[in-house]
C-alpha cells in the first residue's frame, strides 16, 4: 500500500482532469472545429487580413473599456501574445485558406500544435510525459497522418507550410499563458486582442493597398458579419477564455491533446456546410484520432492502475523471512531474556568470610 501511495505521489504532475473541465475542453474543440467553416464563409467576401483584424476589433472593443488591464501581466507580454495570436496564428491560417487550403485540412494540420506545446512544456517546465500519454500521442499522430493522406484536397506545400507555422505560433501562445498565468482570462484576451489589430491592418495595406479595404466595405453583409461575430465572441472570447483557464489549471500535457478533436469537428462541418467529401478511409482516420485522445485523457488512470498492479506483484517479496526457533536455550550465565539470574544458596569460601 505504501509503495502504491509513493507511485501516486510520483504521478502528481499527471493531474487527472475533472469531468466538468473535460466537458468544457471538448465543447471548446467543437466550437474551434466549426470555426474553420465559418472562416471559409467570411473569406468569400473579405480579405484575410482584414477579416482577422475585424475579428479582433470586435473582440477588443468595447470590452477593453470595461475590463482593467491584467495587473500581473506586463504590457510587453500583452503585445507579444496579441501579435503572435493575431498575426502568427489566425492571420496565417486565413491566408492559407484564402490561397485554397480546405477548411478540413487546415483544422487537421493546425492540431500539430498539441505536440509542439507538449515538447516545449517538457523542455521549459519539465512536465512529465508518462508512457500511456506517449502512446496516446503516438496513436493520435498516426490518425492525423492518415487524415492527411486520405484528404482529397490538393492545396500545395505553401498552404501546408503556413498552417504548420500557425501551429507553432499556437504552441508559443500556450506556453506564454502557462508561464504568466493571467488572473483574469477575459481581460487578458480582450487587451491582447487590441494589440493584434494594428499589425493586421498594416499587413492588409502592404499586401493589397487600399483596394482590400474598399472591397471589404463593398462586400460586407450578413454572411461576413456572422463570420466575424462567431469568430470574435464564440471562438475567441468564450473559447480561449475556457481553454486558457484549463491550460493555467492543468499541465499542458493533459489539456493540449484535447485539441486533437478539432480536426474531427472541422472535417465534419466542412463536409456538411462546404460539401467537402469524406471517404471511408477518412472515417477510419478520425476513429484512430479519437482512440488516441481517449488513451491520453485516461493516461493518469492507466498509470495509477499499472503502478498498483506492479506494487501488488512485488509486495510478497518484501515480507521478512521467518527464522526457525532455537532447539535449546543458549549456555550462558545470562538468561535468554538478557537478565542476570539470581544467586544460588551455595556460597564460596570467600562469601563465608565476608558474612562472618
What does this structure look like?
The chain is an all-alpha fold and 356 residues long. It is built from 17 helices and no strands. The protein has helices spanning 2-10, 19-43, 48-60, 75-98, 103-110, 113-124, 131-150, 157-180, 185-194, 197-208, 210-219, 222-249, 252-255, 262-273, 280-297, 299-314, 349-355. The relative contact order is 0.19.
Please summarize what this structure is:
With 356 residues, this protein is mostly helical. It has 17 helices and no strands.
Topology of this protein?
Blueprint: H1 2-10, H2 19-43, H3 48-60, H4 75-98, H5 103-110, H6 113-124, H7 131-150, H8 157-180, H9 185-194, H10 197-208, H11 210-219, H12 222-249, H13 252-255, H14 262-273, H15 280-297, H16 299-314, H17 349-355
Strand content: under 5%
Which secondary-structure class do the elements indicate?
Answer: mainly alpha
Largest sheet: none
* Average residue pLDDT: 79
* Amino-to-carboxy terminus distance: 68 Å
**Count of helical regions:** 17
The number of E-state strands comes to 0
Order of helices and strands: HHHHHHHHHHHHHHHHH
In helices, the fraction of residues equals: over 70%
Low-confidence stretches: 1-13, 344-356
* Alpha-carbon Rg, integer: 32 Å
Described by the principal axes of the CA atoms, the overall outline is globular
Amino acid at each position: 500500500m505504501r509503495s502504491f501511495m509513493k507511485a501516486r505521489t510520483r504521478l502528481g504532475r499527471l493531474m487527472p482532469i475533472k469531468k466538468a473541465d473535460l466537458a468544457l475542453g471538448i465543447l471548446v474543440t467543437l466550437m474551434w472545429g466549426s470555426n474553420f467553416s465559418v472562416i471559409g464563409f467570411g473569406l468569400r467576401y473579405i480579405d484575410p487580413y482584414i477579416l482577422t483584424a475585424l475579428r479582433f476589433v470586435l473582440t477588443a472593443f468595447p470590452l477593453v473599456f470595461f475590463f482593467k488591464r491584467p495587473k500581473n501581466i506586463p504590457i510587453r507580454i500583452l503585445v507579444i501574445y496579441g501579435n503572435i495570436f493575431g498575426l502568427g496564428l489566425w492571420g496565417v491560417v486565413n491566408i492559407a485558406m484564402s490561397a485554397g487550403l480546405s477548411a478540413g485540412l487546415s483544422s487537421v494540420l493546425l492540431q500539430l500544435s498539441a505536440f509542439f506545446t507538449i515538447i516545449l512544456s517538457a523542455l521549459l517546465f519539465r512536465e512529465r510525459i508518462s508512457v500511456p500519454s506517449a502512446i496516446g500521442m503516438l496513436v493520435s499522430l498516426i490518425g492525423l497522418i492518415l487524415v492527411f493522406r486520405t484528404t482529397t484536397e490538393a492545396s500545395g506545400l505553401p498552404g501546408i507550410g503556413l498552417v504548420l507555422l500557425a501551429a507553432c505560433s499556437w504552441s508559443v501562445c500556450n506556453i506564454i499563458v502557462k508561464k504568466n498565468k493571467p488572473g483574469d482570462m477575459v481581460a487578458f484576451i480582450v487587451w491582447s486582442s487590441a494589440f493584434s489589430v494594428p499589425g493586421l491592418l498594416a499587413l492588409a495595406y502592404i499586401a493589397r493597398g487600399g483596394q482590400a479595404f474598399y472591397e471589404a466595405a463593398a462586400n460586407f453583409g450578413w454572411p461576413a458579419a456572422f463570420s466575424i461575430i462567431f469568430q470574435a465572441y464564440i471562438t475567441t472570447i468564450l473559447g480561449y477564455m475556457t481553454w486558457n483557464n484549463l491550460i493555467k489549471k492543468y499541465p499542458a500535457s493533459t489539456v493540449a491533446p484535447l485539441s486533437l478533436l478539432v480536426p474531427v469537428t472541422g472535417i465534419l462541418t466542412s463536409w456538411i456546410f462546404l460539401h467537402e467529401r469524406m471517404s471511408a478511409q477518412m472515417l477510419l482516420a478520425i476513429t484512430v484520432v479519437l482512440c488516441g485522445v481517449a488513451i491520453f485523457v485516461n493516461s493518469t488512470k492507466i498509470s495509477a492502475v499499472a503502478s498498483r498492479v506492479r506494487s501488488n506483484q512485488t509486495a510478497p517479496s518484501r515480507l521478512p523471512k521467518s527464522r526457525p526457533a532455537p532447539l535449546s536455550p543458549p549456555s550462558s550465565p545470562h538468561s535468554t531474556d538478557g537478565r542476570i539470574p539470581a544467586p544460588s544458596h551455595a556460597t564460596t569460601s570467600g562469601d563465608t568470610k565476608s558474612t562472618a
